[in-house]
Structure formats: structure tokens, C-alpha cells
Amino acid sequence: MIPQFEAAETAALLTPAAAADALADALRAGLDPESCPQRSALPVPGGGELLLMPAAAGEYAGVKIAGVAPGNPALGLPRITGSYLLMDGVTLRPLALFDGAALTALRTPAVSALALRYLAPAGRALRLVLFGAGPQAYGHLEAVLQVSELAQAVVVGRDPGAAERLAAHARGLGVRARTGTASDVAEADLVLCCTTAREPLFDGRLVAPGATVVAVGSHEPDARETDTALVRRAAVYVESRAAALREAGDLLVPEAEGAIGPGHINGTLADLVAGRMPAAGAPGSPQLFKSVGMAWEDLAVAVAMYRAAGGATARGSSAT
Q: What average pLDDT does the structure give for the chain?
């Protein structure tokens, strides 16, 4: 029987900062996100979606099977379900089974945290506006606190009660926090979008020059959290050009409108980690990091989890 980790056990294995380190290590070891297999998506009855995300690198392989069930929260169930199977990369012998939702809830903030190591305004405590009040919003708050000092956090959510609970959670972590509205982005140094929205959450013209926006909520070409005005102004960074131009509605919708071209991407996460370009982008412009979630990220974090749990490196050698 291979080790199996339930949701709480999976979540406890790594901090967002440690997961971000694992992602950076994978990129420095030569992993190429542009060659990562794309996710397969299968519509299922009831309006849900079944996602299959395989990856292989170094001494490991793995696959995430995830369900996205939009109706689950109304039933008191998680919107994201699933499992992650980690395998030896040569023999394909199963090594461990992790809770897929917990892995995703850690992996996505870790990707954002890695990007923010390079893109977040430096040298001062930041004013954060956080859209969303679900698991990703909580995870991103924790991740940001491991990267930057916060002067204030403003939570914007569709459900006022849920938004206030997250603001109270932030206050419990020592952050001055309150609920607010979309117009609060005008005063923000950092804007995090962690929602299931399909239309823009705020007016991109309000975002201050030099502010950084992170959008993680969608991986569909017709869904977006940010508007064309922001994308046109911003220096844009992505996990992978191929994935973004396939799945990132935040960029594809403005491109379809003729507002930007396919080359309107300043760089990738791998570029930032390798130091191949200035992180700040054009002077006076906001910065936008758009994440769609990729299978290589799940694999890198799952390997780090396996090692943190005491799993031996596959056949005793290192892997990405």
C-alpha cells in the first residue's frame, strides 16, 4: 500500500514559501514549462468538469485528476476535488497519493509567491486588495505574508459575511484588515484575484503605476478577472507563453478585441527566476502576472511533499 495523504495531511507538508522554492528549483534544473503537456478537460453532467493533468520530469512522473463542480459550495462541499498520484519516473511505480484539492490550494499560491518575489514592490509595507474569500484567497494571504510585509489588506467578495471572515482571519495574523469594494484597487500596491469570476472584477484604469496584479482564478479562454484597460497598460508575465495563449482569457479576450497582439507578454516565470530580464517592466506601468495552473507545478510540489514526508528520492538520486 502506498502512502496516502488526506487533505489536512497534504496541506501540512509544505509552507507556500517551501513550495515556491520547489518550483524555482525545478526551473533552475532546466524544466521547460513551454513543453509541459496541456490539461485535458471533460465536461460532465451537472455542469462540472473533469481535468487530467500529467507531467514527467527528472526521476518522477505524476498525474492530477481534478473535478471542478461549481454547484458544490451550495451543498457545503468543496468546489475542487481530486487526487494526485506521484510515481517513479522510470518504473512508473506509484509512490504516494495526495489530496488533489489540497495540493492545488498550496500550488497556486506558491506560483504566485514565486512571481511576487520578483514583481512585488520592494522596500515598503504593501497595501493589498484581495478579491475572493475562498480557499485560494486564504492560501494567497498566507503566501503573500511569506513574501512581503503588509500595511493593510482589503477583502472584496460577493458574500459580505465570507469577506468579513477572511478579513478577521487576516487581523488574527497581525494584519490591519477590512472589507471593501472594487474601487479600493486605486490605493493598492498589490491586487490578488482569486475568484471564479468570468467578467472583470475592477476598472483597470484605477490601478496605480507600479502596482502589481496577480490573477489566478480561471484557465478558460473566455473567462477573465482583469479587463482590457489593465492588460493594455501592464507589463505582462505568465507561467508559459504556450499555456497563456491557449487558456488565459485575461489575455485572449483583449487579443480578440484587437487591443493587444499575441506578443503582448513581457516574460515568463522561468525568465524571472533565471534573471533573463528586468522584473519591473516598462517605467510607470502596472505589472500583471496571469496564472492558469500547470501540471509541472503540481509535480514539483508533489515531489517536495513526498520528500518532506520522508519519502526516498527515486532510486536514491535527485529530481526536479
A: 92
Cell representation of residue 1: 500500500
**122-166: per-residue pLDDT in tens?**
889 999 999 999 999 999 999 999 999 999 999 999 999 999 999
What is the chain written as a DSSP string?
---EE-HHHHHHS--HHHHHHHHHHHHHTT--GGGSPPPEEEEETTTEEEEEEEEEETTEEEEEEEEE-TTTGGGTS-SEEEEEEEEETTT--EEEEEEHHHHHHHHHHHHHHHHHHHHS--SSPEEEEEE--SHHHHHHHHHHHTT--EEEEEEE-SSHHHHHHHHHHHHHTT--EEE--GGGGGG-SEEEE-S--SS-SS-GGGSPTT-EEEE-S--STT--SS-HHHHHHSEEEES-HHHHHHH-HHHHHHHHTTSS-TT---EEHHHHHHT-S-SS-STT--EEEE----HHHHHHHHHHHHHHTTPPPGGGS---
φ and ψ at 191, to 5 degrees? Answer: -120, 125
Q: Classify the C-alpha dihedral 201-203-207-209 as positive or negative.
A: positive
pLDDT at residue 278, as a whole number: 61
Q: What is the pTM of this model?
A: 0.92
For residue 262, is pLDDT > 90?
no
Number of C-alpha atoms within 13 angstroms, CB side, residue 187? 10
